[in-house]
Design a protein that fits this description.
The chain has about 260 residues and is α/β, with parallel strands linked by helices. Helix content is about 30%, strand content about 10%. The protein folds into 2 domains: about 160 residues, 3-Layer(aba) Sandwich (Rossmann fold); about 80 residues, no CATH class. Strand 3, helix 4 and strand 4 form a beta-alpha-beta unit. Bound molecules: iron/sulfur cluster (3 copies). The site of one iron/sulfur cluster has 14 residues, from helix 8.
């Protein structure tokens, strides 16, 4: 897979962005990369579809497809399959696409549509099902985590693919990065923090700014949720119910009780 991207370097690598159920904040975040980085990337990449910044759309083959947003309508499956069939590499782009993200909160509410859309909740275009990551519908090769997606991770993954290398996505907790930058633990202030089970890679900016980690990058594989709840109860001064709700803000699909 990496090799095929490398081969495409003779001409520029064709890159497209697609959005599904999302706020499109990840695409917007990409435009914050800065002129210098963008100019560098554009020497190697050709953007063939990117709704936030251009009107053209791509009908042919794509080297790298970035997919933003969750899979929450069966009607979207065909479009996803078409993108997969045309793309050498598919990358989920941000928390909604990678884990179901914040959109998956609806999986735990029976009246979410009415709560959000009120009298218009019955409109046909609002009909949707359980919110799931894109990988529930098609094969995904890599994930860029975060809400919004981490633009440094975007550059890291793209540059690795351009060099024919396998990017490594961290699978250790945010606490590791938090300790490395010598941030005082939020639990010392009686706050809750999910850095204990959140996937690292962001550099732990939130605790460093005095904000507990909300696990926007999702959980590590095999998180010890029992211990998390215990620590939140005892040190974060939270009830079990509140701790449970907090810990599923960005990871609702990954919890056993997602329906
Ligand atoms: S991951 Fe966050 S910023 Fe990105 S589309 Fe989803 S809600 Fe928006
Ligand atoms: S503040 Fe959060 S991320 Fe940092 S060490 Fe404490 S629990 Fe871990
Ligand atoms: S510290 Fe937590 S909430 Fe903040 S960016 Fe990292 S994973 Fe997301």
């Amino acid at each position: 897979m990496s090799t095929s991207i490398e081969k495409a370097k003779a001409s520029k690598v064709k890159v497209a962005f697609f959005d599904f159920s999302s706020c499109e904040g990840c695409q917007i975040e990409l435009t914050n990369l800065g002129e210098e980085v963008f100019t560098g990337l554009l020497q190697h990449l050709e953007f063939v579809e990117f709704r936030e910044v251009m009107t053209e759309t791509a009908k042919g083959p794509i080297d790298i497809a970035f997919i933003e947003g969750a899979f929450t309508r069966e009607a979207d499956r065909k479009r996803l399959e078409d993108i997969r069939a045309r793309s050498k590499t598919v990358i989920s782009f941000g928390a909604c696409a990678s884990t179901g993200g914040i959109t998956a909160l609806k999986n735990h509410m029976s009246d979410y549509s009415q709560c959000v859309y009120g009298v218009n909740s019955g409109a046909p275009h609002l009909a949707s099902q359980k919110s799931e990551p894109i990988s529930a519908a098609i094969k995904v090769d890599y994930a860029i985590h975060g809400c919004p997606m981490d633009k440094d991770e975007f550059v890291y993954i793209v540059s690795h693919l351009l060099h024919g290398k396998e990017p490594v996505i961290p699978n250790h907790p945010v606490c590791v990065e938090c300790k490395m930058r010598e941030t005082v633990c939020r639990y010392s202030y009686g706050h809750h923090c999910m850095g204990l089970v959140a996937r690292a890679g962001c550099g732990a900016p939130c605790p460093a700014d005095g904000i507990p980690c909300e696990a926007c990058r999702g959980f590590i594989e095999h998180p010890n949720e029992e211990s998390l709840t215990k620590v939140m109860n005892e040190r974060g001064r939270m009830t079990s119910e509140r701790a449970k709700n907090k810990s599923r803000m960005f990871t609702a699909t990954l919890r056993g009780d997602a329906k």
